[in-house]
Amino acid sequence: MGAIPTALVVGLGMPADVPVAWVDGLADGFREECALVGASVAGGDITRSELVVIGVTALGDLGGHAPVTRSGARPGQVVAFAGRLGYAAAGLALLEAGLEPEGGPLLEAVEGHRRPRPPYACGPEAARMGAAAMLDVSDGLLQDLGHVAAASGVGITLDPTAFPIGEPVAAAAKELGADPVEWVLTGGEDHALAAVFPPEVRLPPHWTVVGHVVEGAKVQVAGRTTGLGGWDHFRE
Amino acid sequence: MGAIPTALVVGLGMPADVPVAWVDGLADGFREECALVGASVAGGDITRSELVVIGVTALGDLGGHAPVTRSGARPGQVVAFAGRLGYAAAGLALLEAGLEPEGGPLLEAVEGHRRPRPPYACGPEAARMGAAAMLDVSDGLLQDLGHVAAASGVGITLDPTAFPIGEPVAAAAKELGADPVEWVLTGGEDHALAAVFPPEVRLPPHWTVVGHVVEGAKVQVAGRTTGLGGWDHFRE
Q1: Which chain B residue's Cα is nearest to A47?
Q2: Partner of A179 at 20 to 30 A CA spacing, among A207, B122, B142, B214?
């Protein structure tokens, strides 16, 4: 973590009857997303397959600096995130409930599921600011921070009231009678960045401090660590 | 082409019921093959899939030199190959004929199909010697040299009598009543290296000169370019 993205290598397997327009759309999507960071698809391979299979290797340039890994968190440091949390989980819940919103915050949640918006620039920024550990939130914040805690040999305590709830997440929770904080803490696929910083680092406003690194192990959510069995498997 | 292999990134999709021993065997194979060149599996990702799908990105280090591409061939240069040709095609033909050789050259052909032996060191060597174009022979020599001809805007003429026929290839051809030269010219999956060199380069004995670059287009096999319709699609 902390590299500037430079190129993708894409391996593509697909049946012979996949429409060319579908493949064109896939290529357009790769090109448009790469353009956001100045990268490009630099190569890959194509083969026939019974299923559509897409394998992507992303390459980046650390500019000679060491990568920011999962193992650098130390007690006393702060835990922060940048980007969106809970949007993709909210959008998926709406779609699974059979809803097809045509506008407003519910549509924004669905679009957050269909096309996440990773905060690309925040990775190199965090590295420059001295992040001690970092990863992207692909499996849910609690689970992914659990990887940091395990790799660093520390515990992490989160303050659930510190998380801003995006309007689309709040609207979807109201629509479905769900708990928006659960989506924020356990929903994956938004590809937010979670990072650990020394306490003296002054974070710009697009980073939100949500917890601290402590002695111990695993991830605790203050005030919600008991009686919410659904979260237990994220704290293994 | 011409880089020193450094690392593989492996994407692996598989059903949940794949035996662990199978996955261990796969990992062992990657490690053993990487050890031949001093590379290692540096990362990747795993996901569940209905089929076993393996996607590999190989990374290499050019040491600051420009890569040897397909587009550098010029008339007057010589075409040579290193490694094996026809072994994998001969081995596959034996297996498809229902033969299960237990030893001797027929088994060697089958093993050539099951585990190709790319001449890894010959790639950087060819680059150091000044190769003008190079690629590995994965789809068959005629087809792959056709890519060089097209990318370079030249023709290539091959001398079919210049190719050594490996004992396993000859034995399999005798067993099946097949033409060993066809396997050598059109068989893929041996991952030999084919390269084009300036005529003044003195090639070591593990490189065999088999043809020349000429003005024109496409790949011609001297004395066999007509009456062998099966090869036409390789010369498109």
Answers
A1: B55
A2: A207
Q: What is the maximal distance between C-alpha atoms in chain A?
A: 57
| Chain CA centroid to CA B157, Å | 19
Which single residue is written with the structure tokens 């992040």?
A: A131
CATH number of the B4-61 domain: 3.30.1330.10
* Out of A50, A53, A56, closest to residue B13 by CB: A53
The CATH architecture of the domain made up of B78-235 is Alpha-Beta Complex (3.90)
Instruction: Report the C-alpha gap between A182 and A176 in whole angstroms.
Output: 13
Q: What is the pLDDT of residues B182-226, one digit of tens each?
A: 999 999 999 999 999 999 999 999 999 999 999 999 999 987 754
Candidates B13, B53, B57; nearest CB to A9 = B57
Annotated domain spans of chain A: 4-61, 78-235
User: Could you identify the residue written with the tokens 């290797």?
Assistant: A57
CB-CB contact of A94 with A175 (8 Å)? yes
In chain B, residues with a C-beta closer than 8 Å to the C-beta of A61 are none
Q: What is the pLDDT of residues A2-20, one digit of tens each?
A: 999 999 999 999 999 999 9
Chain B residue closest to A48 (CA)? B53
> Which of 45-84 (A) contact B at CB < 8 A?
49-51, 53, 55-57
CA pair distance A223, A201, nearest whole angstrom: 27
B57/A53 touch (CB, cutoff 8 Å), yes or no? no
